[in-house]
Design goal:
Layout (H helix, E strand, L loop, with lengths): L10 E2 L9 E2 L4 H4 L6 H15 L5 E4 L4 E3 L4 E4 L2 H21 L3 E2 L3 H10 L7 H4 L2 H4 L11 H12 L3 H7 L21 H15 L7 E5 L5 H8 L3 E6 L2 H14 L5 E5 L9 E7 L10 H10 L1 E13 L2 H7 L5 H5 L9 H11 L3 E7 L1 H17 L1 H6 L4 H20 L3 E8 L6
Parallel strand pairs: 3-5, 7-8, 7-10, 8-9, 10-11
Antiparallel strand pairs: 1-2, 3-4, 5-6, 11-13, 12-13
Helix pairs in contact: 2-3, 3-18, 4-18, 9-10, 12-15, 16-18
Length: 428
């Protein structure tokens, strides 16, 4: 998925009105509408009509016909392609159809929020029981082995520092902020991000002299704020581009003697620490390696130490249903990613470590506002994104990703937690 500067390439415009021009070399599965039989398209249409009879959602087609009971509007420009993609690739096809310009929505977040709120019952129960026959499986190549993790992380976080700087605030923080009230304003985002970081550092008990391990550097804001408290920080990342900019920020802030940023997998960490923090990293670990991840936290934490962890979560039943399924987000945004449930996090910690789950605090509404601000900024700076060499399909991809994520938090399908794990002091 990684974009490079524009180059001559095969281009394809899917059938239908006002569809986007798609670079077939970069986006092969978007450029080509899957071949499907009439029965598949008819069955897909029947499932959609069944869903729309129960949802507060409208769907309008190019011929002027409509379905649904009211609510946010989805405008389908190419019905044949839309049904073909969903019929062969499910929700991956739904996202690819948006990327191809075959459908749009005046209120994209509103439409996706309705779908997210009914994610568990969009598909009739009899088809859900056959999920294993039609759902795409996660590719083995995206397993989060040490080599696989480097590749997966690079595909997202090494896209371009300049790209992320276009829609993030000056702290370059790419996780949920904590606001004082809603609706949030862009001018307040940087302070809200620092408030989130400070809450996590407080949970972990970070103070002058603390030896702190951070798993997942981002662009360095947490390490900077910990260093400002007088902590000595070792931060780990697998993103070369993030590390380069984070090191530059550390040097400019005058904290090079307190902050070390290593290009290192969490499984290769050395030493022990008074505190460990990790922000929205567990989602990139993959369910297969959650036990390894939490054992790493325990093994490198001194007795009496504290772990502050921030994690996106989803309902346990939906997590179980999605464990082996390849999703649109995994295919195009976070390869190898898997969002846990609070039950999965807490059971994994209890079953594989002697850490104690001491605190859990959810604040999903704050993530919805964070994503709204990012999405609006990304939209406003679309020309700047294009100037970096990211084509129209990429811009639609990221618009859908940010809206899709915001909808997840607005509907309550997704949440975000700050955890405190503690380790018993054996000397007592």
């Amino acid at each position: 998925m990684t974009q490079v500067a524009p180059r001559p390439a095969a281009r394809h415009r899917p059938a239908g009105r006002r569809s986007a021009i798609v670079d077939a070399d970069r986006w092969p599965d978007v450029a080509t509408v899957p071949r499907t039989s009439w029965p598949v398209r008819a069955a897909t249409q029947a499932v959609l009509e069944h869903a729309l009879r129960r949802l507060p959602l409208r769907m309008r087609f190019a011929d002027g016909s409509t379905l649904g009971q009211g609510g946010p509007l989805i405008e389908v420009r190419d019905r044949t392609a839309f049904h073909a993609r969903i019929g062969t690739r499910g929700l991956i096809g739904f996202g690819e159809s948006y990327m191809a310009g075959e459908w749009d929505a005046p209120d994209l977040v509103g439409a996706l929020t309705v779908l997210a709120a009914h994610a568990a019952d969009l598909i009739p129960p009899r088809l859900q029981r056959l999920r294993g026959l039609w759902a795409q499986r996660q590719p083995r190549a995206q397993r989060n082995t040490p080599d696989g993790s480097r590749t997966n992380i690079s595909r997202h976080y090494d896209l371009s520092n300049d790209l992320f700087a276009l829609f993030l605030d000056e702290t370059l923080t790419y996780s949920a902020a904590v606001f004082r009230g809603f609706p949030a304003d862009w001018s307040l985002l940087a302070a809200a991000q620092q408030r989130k970081v400070d809450r996590l550092l407080d949970l972990a008990g970070v103070q002058p002299g603390t030896r702190l391990l951070e798993i997942g550097t981002g662009w360095g804001e947490l390490a900077l704020r910990a260093a400002a408290r007088g902590a000595h920080v070792t931060s780990l990342t697998l993103s070369r581009q993030q590390r380069e900019l984070a090191l530059e920020r550390v040097r400019e802030a005058g904290y090079a003697d307190r902050v070390s940023i290593e290009l290192c997998d969490y499984r290769q960490v050395r030493g022990t620490y008074d505190a460990i923090v990790s922000v929205e990293m567990i989602e990139a670990v993959g369910a297969e390696f959650w036990p390894t991840y939490v054992r790493t936290l325990e093994e490198h934490l001194v007795p009496g130490g504290r772990v502050g962890l921030q994690a996106i979560t989803m309902p346990h039943e939906r997590m179980l249903a999605a464990l082996d399924t390849h999703t649109w987000i995994q295919k195009y945004i976070f390869p190898g990613g898997q969002i846990p449930s609070t039950q999965a996090v807490e059971e994994t910690v209890r079953e594989h470590t002697r850490l104690t789950v001491a605190v859990r605090d959810g604040f999903g509404a704050h993530y919805a506002e964070t994503l709204r601000l990012w999405r609006e900024r990304f939209t406003d700076r679309a020309d700047d994104v294009a100037a970096l060499g990211f084509d129209e399909t990429f811009r639609r991809l990221w618009t859908f990703y940010l809206a899709y994520s915001e909808a997840g938090f607005r509907s309550g399908y997704l949440d975000v937690q700050q955890y405190l794990f503690t380790k018993e002091n054996s000397a007592r």
